[in-house]
Amino acid sequence: MRKCFSTCARQLSHENPLVSLVSSHFHSNTHYRLVAPKHHPGPVLNPPNPRNANKYSKGLPRKGAPPTLPRMQRGLPQKRKLRNVAHTIAVSSAKGGVGKSTLAVNLALSFSRHGLRTGILDTDIFGPSVPTLLGLSDVSEPKLTGQNMLVPLTSYGLRSMSMGYLLPNEAAPVAWRGLMVMKALQQLLHEVDWSPGLDVLVLDMPPGTGDVQLTIGQQVELDGAVIVSTPQDIALKDAVKGVGMFRKMNIDVLGMVQNMSVFVCPNCQTETKIFAHSHDDVGGLGGAEAKATDLGVDFLGDVPLDPNICADADRGMPTVVAEEASGKNVNSQYYERIAEKVAQKIGLGWA
Ligand SMILES: Nc1ncnc2c1ncn2[C@@H]1O[C@H](COP(=O)(O)OP(=O)(O)OP(=O)(O)O)[C@@H](O)[C@H]1O
Ligand SMILES: [Mg+2]
């Protein structure tokens, strides 16, 4: 039975407008969505009703009932494979806005187009982009399984999960402190039902080198990380930090991608390097390629700056799908090449 969440939300909202990510009273086929009461602009926490303490004990932490740290975080962190996932890669960069999410989604779609069972997990709790990129910002109502696992949403044959699916609307800010974020991250990492199984899961990472990155690095057996940078020095400096962070956590850096490497004029086909970088003269290498060489990291490829990539992302039809639909192969070739290299590096066949 498809049970509209609004009933449950009414029941819960007076005590917790945020509502559990995974609440034990929801059963399989039950859809749900975080619903804030009208007077709340977004997820703002109210004290829980103590009478329901057990009933809703599995959800996101509520004010007044501080979340306990998961057991594994008290002792030495233990890395483990995500359930039903054969390979996991992270798409990361310490720098914000360099195109991590766009690359992550297009890589995932490239994997999927080559016959790999693929999922994407948006680990950006504050600024989830995957719902927009996959055209799922309005239709998102994840169900729960009988075991209270979130059922991923599917778009273009790609399974996905994101904090964005759990918010009442796109504009709702997530104004949380660290423990709340960690609790949500735990649930996104360990309480999503990827059965019958994925060959590869792509993690779209938030910017920075903070809690989320460290938790993922400490808890998840990653096959490796792809570091994204734009060519200019200021972005490369942060990309270097990203590489350093993964190395410190003994996670393989699969390589670097240079996004927005060059702008090709659609009228005259002239190539312009919009973002200047001090490595321009070094053997003709782009900034990220030269930096990758410096760091002893493989260079996985360039993606040009093309307004169509941005437009495709904004309309919820990523370039790999958009070009497939229009029979073009202008930019998808760049994503495909990078995806092929990554697949080979993590031991996946490429059909
Ligand atoms: N190669 C490209 N050409 C043109 N636009 C691009 C390209 N790559 C990404 N963009 C655009 O740049 C913007 C930022 O991209 P995106 O959201 O993927 O970055 P991000 O690194 O994930 O950001 P954040 O750090 O906020 O998570 C988006 O508008 C996206 O459409
Ligand atoms: Mg992003």
From TrEMBL:
Gene3D superfamilies: P-loop containing nucleotide triphosphate hydrolases. Residues 37-77 are annotated as: Disordered. InterPro entries: Mrp/NBP35_ATP-bd (IPR019591), NUBPL-like (IPR044304), P-loop_NTPase (IPR027417), YlxH/NBP35 (IPR033756). It comes from the Eukaryota. The keyword Oxidoreductase does not apply. Keywords: ATP-binding, Iron, Iron-sulfur, Metal-binding, Nucleotide-binding. Coiled coil: none annotated. Belongs to the Mrp/NBP35 ATP-binding proteins family. This is Uncharacterized protein.
